[in-house]
Design a protein that fits this description.
By secondary structure, the chain is an alpha/beta fold. It contains 9 helices and 8 strands.
Length: 218
């Protein structure tokens, strides 16, 4: 059986509306213009520190305000779950993979606290044996260390990474593991510009992709 690690935001869940809510609440408090949902999706991917940097750049907020803005953002992040939705077919795919005996885990750049909070809120936490957040290690994706740590926590077996973005593709390449690309997430470039083993647009297709990949690699 395989070890399958998933990215979270833009892969299993569409959390952009909740993240937009945090960002715009902070902008309103500071008398600045709100962000569109497309802008927020464009900011997501490299973790909360980079997200706040991109917010500041878009609104010409001084560097000196970074730490305070980051703290305000993170304070709200733990409870930002009510607008987040699971992508269609995710729960059924996770159940099928779990039933088939695969070991499942999460490797995300989202901080570990908000990660665990949203997984519990959506009742997805029951499927994952290990969860690595953006602040679980001194480095985050696209450094391969968090992904390799997640695989290591699942023991032995073929490794497969499932994600949606440029960061995920780069991480998989650096970790030298097969990458299954979910095409309906937060990627910013065309599918054919991202290195991937296979691509899919609905999670109902994932269990068969995993089965086929395992046959091809054994």
């Amino acid at each position: 059986m395989a070890r399958i690690i998933f990215d979270l935001d833009g892969t299993l869940i569409d959390s952009a509306p909740d993240i937009q809510g945090i960002a715009n609440a902070l902008m309103t408090e500071d008398g600045l213009a709100p962000f569109t949902l497309d802008q927020v999706r464009d900011f997501i991917g490299n973790g909360v520190v980079v997200f706040v940097q991109k917010m500041r750049a878009a609104r010409a907020i001084p560097d000196a305000a970074h730490d305070k803005l980051l703290k305000r953002f993170v304070t709200r992040y733990h409870s930002a779950t009510t607008l987040t939705e699971i992508y269609p077919g995710v729960r059924e795919a996770l159940q099928a993979l779990d039933t088939a005996g695969h070991a499942l885990g999460i490797c995300t750049n989202k901080p570990i606290g908000p990660t665990k909070a949203v997984l519990k809120h959506l009742s997805l936490n029951i499927y994952f044996e290990t969860i690595i957040g953006g602040d679980s290690l001194p480095v985050s994706k696209p450094d391969p260390a968090p992904l390799l740590a997640a695989f290591g926590a699942l023991g032995e077996g073929p490794a497969i990474y499932v994600g949606d973005s440029e960061v995920d593709a780069q991480t998989a390449t650096r970790a030298k593991v097969p990458f299954l690309l979910f095409t309906e997430g937060y990627r910013k470039v065309p599918v054919d510009e991202l290195p991937h083993t296979q691509a899919f647009d609905h999670f109902s297709k994932l269990p068969d992709l995993v089965a086929t990949l395992l046959v091809e690699t054994t």
